[in-house]
Amino acid sequence: MTHRTPSDDELLRRYSRQIFGFALSRTAHDQNAQDLTQDIMLALHRSLQSGKQVDNMDAWVRTICRYTWSNYLAKEKRHWRLADLDEIPSERVLDIGAYEDESDDLLVRLRREVAYLSRLHRDITIQYYYERNSVERIADRLNIAAGTVKWHLFEVRKKLKEAISMETAEHLSFKPIRMNVGHSGSPGPNNEPNSYFTSLLASNICIAIYEKPLTVEEIARQLGTASAFIEDELRKLERSDLVKQKSKGKYQTNFIIETMRSLADETGYFKLKAETLARPIFDCVADNLEEIRRIGFHGSRSNEAFLLWALLPYAIWKQYYQVKDESYYERYAPDEKPDGGKYIVNASILYDDEAYIRDLPDREIVRKYGSNGIKTRDSEMYGSLQIESYWSGMTWRDFNAPDVADMARIIELIDSGEAHNEHDKLLISRLAAKGFVAVNDGKLECLVPFFGADQLGELHRVLDRAFDKIGFKEELDRIYEDTAVIARKHAPSFISDKEIMYKASVDGLTLIFAVLDYLERCGLLPLPAEQEKIRLTTLMWQLG
């Protein structure tokens, strides 16, 4: 009996896990992998006993693995051979004989292509070829005719043969695209639609099927992702009407995605508008600032620049929504989604810096037109406006309707001078952290504009008088019309006119950011101090 040297034993132990990993990756079956591992270990043992000098043991083990795997395939050919894909599947084989010299790579590709199949085709393939079930048993399990199962198997063979022969890989599988997703309107109870797009997969599915409807299999191949994952995401998106199923099992995105072309058209338009409107808008507010201060609202003693950062956006926003009557906004308001929200999706593709510099005119200017939200936080008694912008740090500040009610309590404390109870102290501490209030020398102070109901009415009278003199509402009416034209130009034909018009009305508020940018670049609106950014462009009021 011949004994192996200790070094041989050590080598077999060292490579055993690696060999089993190789076997499992090839067979995708635990028991088959163990059988293949045993064959490889035996072949390696024989090669070591032969006394052959091996300079590179890693390479030698890989050679033994591949050689033994090739022999294993030949021995198990009735199970593994990939024969005549053109035949109707009367035999339990998947034969692609033309590729026998590339068997390792071919089986990897075959497993990948099976993963891309739709659910029904994937289930039938696995049941027939891997679980070894008969056509009749599969038909019984799926409650379909045996002839239908055979037809599906024929379709599977045809698809696999075509896919493996083509061996294509779409760009999205190698370079997934990022998409920024928000909403206009009221979100669903679980923050829909934002919550649907926490992964790259959902975004890239919607991008892949935006301009052209695709089947699950086509999406899977384009994204390089198994169909099972695609199907799961599609179910969620379809449930909220964000994706629609077209004829012949094809899916298409059901909301507008902003591309570089549409972004360039829209930002270019508002840059030109700001060049003609920014200075008149500024004069309407700045020339009347002292009169506005005399209204006596809380926060009126803030510095001039800080007040302008709050009042200019508010003035544009308020004037903009006075142009159309209530019936206009009701006509184009979003319908309720199946998830409970009333919103449209605001989605835009995020490009790399090089693409923006190359394809977006005046990039350094128009990049400031982006926003993380124009937020209204209203209740029966109070209203508010807070705008997330380039100048506030493009963050998402935690600001909700209860904050406005809490600020109203702060105003009561300032006006009455009453002592602060423990609850009041908690409110003061929390609102101070948001930058809304401060305590100086024991005195409570409001740091953002807060208008009482009568004071708000007086503010509107001052602003309306000034803006009426320059015919501002007529200019805004033209912006409504122009943004609708831009939106229709870039929206796919299947998007409803109602959604296009609502999106256009929201996009018209880009004027706010274009005006702020123009005034800041011209030196009329000084940049905010760093400590002011936390409360910048925030204004609150009490309703009558």
Task: Give me the number of helical elements.
Answer: 24
Classify the secondary structure makeup into a structural class: alpha+beta
The helix content is 55-70%
**End-to-end separation:** 103 Å
Shape: elongated
Pfam families: Sigma70_r2 (PF04542)
InterPro entries: RNA_pol_sigma-70-like, RNA_pol_sigma-70_dom, RNA_pol_sigma70_r2, RNA_pol_sigma_r2, RNA_pol_sigma_r3/r4-like, WH-like_DNA-bd_sf, WH_DNA-bd_sf
Domain RNA polymerase sigma-70 region: 11-78
Organism: Cohnella yongneupensis
Please characterize this protein's 3D structure:
The chain is an alpha+beta fold and about 550 residues long. Helix 13 crosses helix 24, helix 15 runs antiparallel to helix 24 and helix 19 crosses helix 20. The protein is elongated. The N terminus is likely disordered.
Structure characteristics:
544 residues, alpha+beta, 3-stranded mixed sheet, 24 helices, disordered N terminus
Structure in a nutshell:
Belongs to the sigma-70 factor family. ECF subfamily. With 544 residues, the chain is α+β, with helices and mostly antiparallel strands.
Topology:
Blueprint: H1 6-27, H2 30-49, H3 57-75, H4 77-80, H5 103-116, H6 119-130, H7 135-142, H8 146-166, H9 171-174, E1 178-186, H10 200-208, H11 216-223, H12 227-239, E2 243-245, E3 251-253, E4 257-258, H13 260-286, H14 289-293, H15 304-320, H16 326-332, E5 342-350, H17 353-359, H18 363-366, E6 371-376, E7 382-389, H19 401-416, H20 422-433, E8 437-440, E9 443-446, E10 450-451, H21 453-469, H22 472-490, H23 497-507, H24 510-521, E11 538-542
Parallel strand pairs: 4-5, 10-11
Antiparallel strand pairs: 1-5, 2-3, 6-7, 7-11, 8-9
Helix pairs in contact: 1-2, 2-3, 7-8, 13-15, 13-22, 13-24, 15-24, 19-20, 22-23
Family: Belongs to the sigma-70 factor family. ECF subfamily.
Organism: Cohnella yongneupensis
Keywords: DNA-binding, Sigma factor, Transcription, Transcription regulation
